[in-house]
Structures are given as C-alpha cells and as structure tokens.
Write a structure and sequence with these properties.
With 69 residues, the chain is of the alpha+beta class. It has a domain of 33 residues. It is 32% helix and 17% strand. It is built from one helix and three strands. Strands 1-2-3 form a three-stranded antiparallel β-sheet, with helices on one face. Strand 2 and strand 3 form a beta hairpin.
C-alpha cells in the first residue's frame, strides 16, 4: 500500500504526517532527512498496528495542487 504524506517546512527543518495514519509523524533537518525518517515511521506505525491487532487503514487521502491566481 502507498500512503499520501504531507511535508511541511518549519522554522528548523521539515515535518511530515500521514493523514490516513493518525499519529504517524516525523521531523528532519532537511526534506531528504524527513523523507527517510517518514518511511521508517510508516513501517514502525504499521508494525505496531499489526502487533496490536488494529486493522490497517486502506489509503484514502487524495491530494491536488491548486494554483492561486
């Protein structure tokens, strides 16, 4: 499964979260760093859900870029 990830610039680097996996978040000093950490966070989050017997959510978030005029 592939989950949509939101990456945001912060004052000290970047943060990321997965809308379909509440509580699955990551931070990093650069975009590359947070992408690596986010991949690890998703794996860790899903492993924890499996161990707890929690159903794994089907990805449902859709995103689109809109251009401001």
């Amino acid at each position: 499964m592939k989950y949509f990830v939101i990456y945001e610039k912060t004052a000290t680097g970047f943060s990321a979260y997965v809308p379909d996996l509440p509580g699955c978040v990551a931070t990093g000093s650069s975009l590359d760093a947070v992408k690596t950490t986010m991949r690890e966070a998703i794996e860790f989050h899903l492993d924890g859900m499996r161990q707890d017997g929690t159903p794994i959510p089907v990805p449902s978030t859709v995103a689109a870029e809109e251009m401001a005029v």
